[in-house]
Amino acid sequence: MLTSLPLYLLYILAVVVSAVVSLYAVKKIIFITQKRQLYDIPDNIRKIHGEQIPSLGGIGIFVGFLATAPFFITEAFKGWNYLLTSSVILFFTGIYDDVANMRPSKKLLAQLIASFITVYFADIRITSLYGIMDIGELPYWISLVFTTFCCTFFINVFNFVDGIDGLAGMTVVLYTAVLAGIFAVSGQTSQICVSLCLCGATLGLLYYNYAPAKIYMGDTGSMLLGFIVFMLSLFVINNNTLLNGSESCLFVFGLLFLPVFDAIRVFIMRTVKGISPLKADRRHLHYYLLDAGFTHAQAAWAMTGTNALTIAIAFYLKDLPHALLLPLIMAPSVLLVITAQLLRVKKGAAV
Asked: Cα separation of 124 and 148, whole Å?
C-alpha cells in the first residue's frame, strides 16, 4: 500500500503522479477536441481569445485527481465516498454544460444536490462561527442549509475565476499548497494527500492553460475545483489543532476572500444597474486588469499574489482583535480593485 511509504515520499508521489496523469490526459483531450473541432468560440464579451480553443481541460483535472487520490488516502478521511459521488455529479454536469450549454436552473440544481450529498451524508459542515459577529453554535438544520448554500455559492464563484488564462489553475495551486501545509501541522495525512493530488492534477492542466492557453478547464474543471477546495476548507474550520475556532474561520475567510469579494461586488453592481446578477459581462476584476493594460499572465499573477498576501495576513495576524483583522484581510483585494479601476479609466475604459 502507498500509505505505508514514508510521509515525505507519499506527499511527493501524490503531486507527481497526479500531475503526470493529468498532463497526459490533457494532452490527449487537446488532440481529440481539435480533431472533433470541439472549441470554445470567442464572443468578444468575456471570451476574448483570438482563436478557437477547446474548453474540456477539466476532464484532465478530474482524471488526474480521481485516478490517483484513492491510492493516497486512508480510512481516516471522513466522507470520501460522498465527496467522490458529489465530484462525479459535478463532473458530468460540467461536461454537459461545456458541450451543450445546460440551462442555468438545471446546473444550479445539480450543484445544490452535489453540495447537499456531502454536507448531509458525510456530515461535513459549518457547525459554529465561534463567536464571530456574536454567532456561536448553529442549530443542525441551519448549519446544514447554510453550509449547502455556501458550498453552492463558492462553486459558482470559482466558475467566475476561470475567466483568463491560468488564473483559476494558479489560484487552486495556491489554495491546495496552503491547505496541505495547514493539514501537515494538524497531522491530517489523508487531507494532505487529497490537497496535493488536487494540486498535481491542476498543475497538469496549468501547463497547457497558462497564457497563452492551449485549452481551458471549462465548467467541468471549475465546478469540481471550487467544490473540493470548499470542502477541504471545512476540514480546517472543524479541526482546531493549529488554529482555534474563530482563528480557523477567519483564516478560511481570508483564504477564499478575493474571489468571493469580487463575485459579490459584481452581483451588486449588476443589480444596481437593473441587470440580472447572472448576466455575463466584463465587470470582474480580471477583466478590469486586462482593460488596464495587463496581459493575461500579469493579471493572473497580480490576483494570485494579492490572494497570497490576504492569506498571510489572516494567518500571521490571527491574534489581532476581529474588528481590526477583518478590515486588514479585506484591504489588499479592495485596493487591487480600486487600482485596476483607476488604471482602466485612465486608459479610457467605461466606468
From this structure: 10
Instruction: Cis check for the bond before 212: say yes or no (omega within 30 of 0).
Output: yes
Give the 3-state secondary structure of residue 215.
coil
d(CA 185, CA 92): 35
Residue 40's DSSP bridge partners are 53
Alpha-carbon distance 109 to 276, whole Å? 19
Q: Which of 332, 140, 319, 331 is nearest to 246 (CA)?
A: 319
Instruction: Give 249's contacts (C-beta < 8 A, 6+ positions apart).
Output: 129, 130, 132, 237
State how far the Cα of 195 lies from the Cα of 199, in Å rounded to an integer.
6
Instruction: Kindly give, in sequence order, each residue whose CB lies less than 8 Å from that of residue 167, ignoring residues fewer than 6 positions away.
Output: 161, 286, 296, 299, 300, 303, 304
How far is residue 342's CA from residue 336's CA, in Å, rounded to a whole number? 10
pLDDT tens digits, 21-52: 999 999 999 988 877 666 555 554 555 544 67
| Domain layout of the chain by residue ranges | 2-346
Name the DSSP class of 348: T
Q: Is 205 left (phi over 0), alpha (psi -120 to 50) or beta?
A: alpha
pTM, two decimals, is 0.93
Judge residue 128's burial from the number of C-beta atoms within 10 Å of its C-beta, 0-12 exposed, 13-18 middle, 19 or more buried.
middle
pLDDT for 49: 46
Q: At what angle do helices 167-186 and 189-209 cross, to 10 degrees?
A: 160
Q: What is the pLDDT of residues 158-208, one digit of tens each?
A: 999 998 999 999 999 999 999 999 999 888 889 999 999 999 999 999 999
Q: Is the dihedral of CA 195, 201, 202, 204 positive or negative?
A: positive
Helix H or strand E encompassing 219: helix 218-238
Calculate Rg over the CA atoms of the chain.
20
Please state, in angstroms and as integers, the Cα–Cα distance from residue 123 to each residue in 99, 131, 141, 149, 231, following that order. Answer: 33, 22, 12, 15, 11
H-helix or E-strand spanning residue 173: helix 167-186
CB atoms within 10 A of CB 1: 7
